[in-house]
Amino acid sequence: MVRTEQDIKFERKVSQTILASQQSVAIGEAGKTGEWRTMRPILHTEKCLVVKTGKLSCNLCWMYCPENTVSRAIPPEFNYDYCKGCGICANECPAHAIEMIPEKDAPSSVGEESATGETGGKF
Amino acid sequence: MVIKVSDLPEEEMILPGTRLCSGCGIQLAYRWALKALGPKTIVTNPASCSTVCGGVGGYTPLKVPTFYCCFETVAANAAGAAAALKAKGQDKEIVVLAWAGDGGTYDIGIQGLSGASERGDNFIFSCVNNQAYMNTGIQRSGATPYGATTTTTPILGKRQLNKNMRKIMEAHGLIYIAQTSVGYPRDIYEKFRKAREFNGKGVRYIEILGTCPPGWGFPTDQSVNLAKLAVETGYWPLLERIDGKLVVSQPSKRYLDKSKRKDIREFLKGQARFRRLTEEDIKVWENYIDAQWDEIRAELEKQGDI
Amino acid sequence: MPEQKVLTGNHAAAYACKSANVEVVAAYPITPQSPVVEKISEFVEAGELPNTQFVTVESEQSAISAVVAASQMGARVFTASSANGLAYMYEILCWAAGSRLPLVMCIATRGLGAPWTVWTDHQDAFSMRDVGFIQQFVESNQEAYDTVLMSYRIAEDPRVYLPAFVSYDGYILSHTMMPVQIEDEDKVKEFLPPLKPHIHLTDFDNVRSVNPVTPPGLTVRPEGNTPGYYEFRYSMQKAHEYATEVVEEVAKEFEAKFGRSYGNGIYKPYKIDDAEVLIFAVASVASESRGVVDKLREEGLKVGLISLKLYRPFPIKHLREAFSKAELVVVFDRDVGYGMEGILAAELKTALYAADHRPIIRGFIVGLGGRDITADQLILGVKTAIAEKDDRTVQQNTHVDFIGVQLEELGFKKEGM
Questions:
Q1: Contact A29 B15 (CB under 8 A)
Q2: Closest chain C residue to B95 measured between Cα atoms?
Q3: Does A25 contact C at CB distance below 8 Å?
Q4: pLDDT digits over C249-308, tens only?
Q5: Distance of CA B175 to CAs B74, B121, B169, B243, B252, Å?
Q6: Considering CB atoms only, which of C73, C92, C213 is closest to B84?
Q7: Closest residue of B to C208, CA-based?
Q8: Which tens digit of pLDDT belongs to each residue from C305-321?
Q9: How many CB pairs under 8 A join A and C?
Q10: Structural domain boundaries of chain B?
Q11: How far apart are CA C358 and CA C354, in angstroms?
Q12: Facing residue for B59 by CB, picked from C56, C74, C221
């Protein structure tokens, strides 16, 4: 492989362009982590305190979700594209308004329109 | 003064779909720390689970600029970043956060942390403590508590108490030291806000107890509950040391009264890592907790607070 | 106005840091480098470095970590170390190179323990050869000062973006006073424009993170593919391959601006025009060799010297040209690539392997751990090499020749003596 003028130009260009390894911000860095779930949280709105009071009074599910896939809204909305199904929200909900159901029994699956809407928190 | 959930800011600094485990206590801690500090924050993060949170390859869920560093060097990196900001006149508006795990704080990172603390470098050092080297596969650390099984204490369980990192940091005379837990996101939020306000006053140290489902051996939905039990049993007091003065945080105040503390077994029994604890071992735990609160009480009395 | 001073090598390095308008310095004392840190402290506390942040770190590892971080924040930085301190930095030196940070640091060369030594040899500098720094050696305190300035210019060049070492001998230069001209700050500013970083951590409108775990393969996403580890390292090597010309350019610019030059910026030739035998060495070894060249020429031997200045990137083309007429090259290494041979000798052989003309190359080890290198030792080496140059058995010898070890005085005798 004889090194041509083009090869030299190419190598120079690369060596001046690829410098430090950097990242841009993106959602779903690990992909659609909703696919990890074996259990899915389902909100029973009739039990939910923010729904009953009509105020952002509880929202512990929003506060405790590590993945940021529950919105602080009335009612809270779950982002099933990314929710990993840990169950913290269900365990911490003071009104027991969130039920963990097997993913296979869920009304819709990841990638399709999720049951309660697309987005979790405000990004 | 406990902030209302509805008054907490909405903007999220970590986008969903990270590589961290389902139910990860660290991610919850990171979420609230970054919310508290806001966008004008530069994070430096050594090898740890949080590095994995930050993404593998060209994309990251983190909305604050983060630069990764070698395991033992996070404090020195933060010191250098803070120096650069000062040189460029940007140190008033931008805060530097060193975000380390227990390995990068208690063990391999302790030299740098101690040096930076002694020098009074301007940054917040946060230890998100899941009590073992979780990222490399649950090996014991200086923060691993007594009797815990890890992959390097697999049969006998750890025979030593963990280091008392809070006391080590107090010995450095830092202006702000805090202990918090992922069971209390509002507490995390408030403490990071305070730490930010101490900008320019040296290293501020915050340690967050972060639960770890695979490392501690519990179902993912217990992550917050166990982080609360750690506090409710009196094992992990939420407190601050502000310019030398000890302040017990509101959620922990009632545990000055031993009768209000839950039985430590409630915390221990839910975790597979403590399955080898004998009654004798649990006694060690109980003595540790009692001694800790006796000291806290004595100090509050000396301060004239009780 | 430039200032004429008489300075040790360490102080020359400190003045270079001052002249270069460095923004963040972090350094930890180690013999024989400590006066660098002390002098900078003096500048700082006397208010002579008002724009410089000096972090009095608690170890070398923290020193290099602090300046790497500051460099990532876009600051011009400086540090210095020696031997074991330099070795303690190793992990983060690799990090600096892999991040393509234009940091410049001095090595006051010293032997690596064990056993403990504080005296000079070149093992510490050579042990860094695979890290990815640009490396230059110097023979005088003026050259140390000048080369630090040139190194910033080279390192910060967008065609390069690589960190750089400037190595000067412990004690021989670090503690010896020589005349040094300290240049006028404004003139230096013209030669050294402000750093244009390629990382912008404080650009909050375009948030990016730096040095994540970077996998073997590309990251493939609809937003755009990003390189794997392999591409970053490929780029680093290629940057080295094209950096030699920048070194030459900068040397010429420096000469034009300040009136001083060091050979062609790559190596310093001494009496090479008609030389049949060339000595190849760096730093203190090269300095000592100049007198040796003169002495041997008095005896009628056509000896010359190539004093190598640029060690990394290894200037293969220049060396093939420099040695294109020599019959014999005698390499004196103040270091050993343990398990092989003197590092400079080994690398010259590599460089000349594909040359049209391959001289005989004979290597010797000298002066480890500060053992004094005398003219007599080097003369012995050259004369031995000349006497044995046609002996094939000698050429094929795989055992390394050391000059200057004193084994007889320790009671070691060869059998039959």
A1: yes
A2: C202
A3: yes
A4: 999 999 999 999 999 999 999 999 999 999 999 999 999 999 999 999 999 999 999 999
A5: 20, 12, 10, 4, 21
A6: C73
A7: B65
A8: 999 999 999 999 999 99
A9: 70
A10: 13-303
A11: 8
A12: C221
Mind listing the domains of chain C with CATH numbers?
3-196+243-258 (3.40.50.970), 267-410 (3.40.50.920)
3-class DSSP assignment, residue B247: strand
pLDDT tens figures, B95-142: 999 999 999 999 999 999 999 999 999 999 999 999 999 999 999 999
Spell out the SS3 assignment of chain C: CCEEEEECHHHHHHHHHHHCCCCEEECCCCCCCHHHHHHHHHHHHCCCCCCCEEECCCCHHHHHHHHHHHHHCCCCEEEEECHHHHHHCHHHHHHHHHCCCCCEEEEEECCCCCCCCCCCCCHHHHCCCCCCCEEEECCCHHHHHHHHHHHHHHHCCCCCCCCEEEEEECCCCCCCCEEEEECCHHHHHHHCCCCCCCCCCCCCCCCEEECCECCCCCECCCCCCECCHHHHHHHHHHHHHCHHHHHHHHHHHHHHHHCCCCCCCCEEEECCCCCCEEEEEEHHHHHHHHHHHHHHHHCCCCEEEEEECEEECCCHHHHHHHCCCCCEEEEEECCCCCCCCCHHHHHHHHHHCCCCCCCEEEEEEECHHHCCCCHHHHHHHHHHHHHCCCCHHHHCCCCCCEECCCCHHHCCCCCCC
- CB contact under 8 Å between A16 and C212, yes or no, is no
For residue C333, CA distances in Å to A54, C175, C340, C348, C401 come to 82, 22, 12, 11, 10
Decide: B172 and B118 in contact? Cβ < 8 Å: yes
Residue A106: predicted pLDDT: 85
Say yes or no: A100 contacts chain B, CB-CB below 8 A: yes
Q: Report percent pLDDT > 70 for chain B.
A: 100
Phi, psi of A53 (to 5 degrees): -90, -15
Q: How far is CA B226 from CA B270, C23, C341, in A?
A: 8, 47, 60
User: For the whole model, what pTM was predicted?
Assistant: 0.96
Q: Which residues fall within 8 angstroms of residue C345, CB to CB, at 6 or more apart? A: C280, C331, C333, C361, C362, C363
Tell me whether B280 touches chain A (CB under 8 Å): no
Nearest-angstrom CA–CA distance, C66 and B81? 7
Fold type of domain A37-105: Alpha-Beta Plaits (3.30.70)
Q: Which residue positions in chain C have pLDDT lower than 70?
A: 417
User: Which pair of structure tokens corresponds to residue B230?
Assistant: 């750690």
Verify whether the Cβ–Cβ distance C232 to A18 is below 8 Å: yes
Task: Please state, in angstroms and rounded to a whole number, the distance separating the CA atoms of residues C310 and C314.
Answer: 7
Q: Can you state the angle between helices B25-37 and B185-197, rounded to 10 degrees?
A: 40
Q: Is C317 on the interface with A (CB under 8 A)?
A: no
**Are C64 and C97 a contacting pair, CB within 8 Å?**
no
**C198 with A21: Cβ contact below 8 A:** no
Distance (Å, whole) CA B279 – CA C16: 66
- pLDDT level of residue B84 (50, 70, 90 thresholds): very high
Nearest-by-CA chain B residue for C213: B56
| Chain A residues touching C239 at Cβ < 8 A | 15-16
Instruction: State the pLDDT confidence band at B1, using cuts at 50, 70 and 90.
Output: low
pLDDT > 70? residue A119: no
**Which of B27, B28, B59 comes nearest A24 by C-beta?**
B59
- List CB contacts (< 8 A) between B14 and chain A: 68
CA atoms lying within 13 Å on the CB side of residue A4: 2
Q: Tell which CATH classification among 3.30.950.10, 2.60.40.10, 3.40.50.970, 1.10.3720.10 matches the domain B13-303.
A: 3.40.50.970
Q: Which of B15, B16, B221 sits opposite A90 (nearest CB)?
A: B221
Both tokens of C338, joined, read: 């343990």
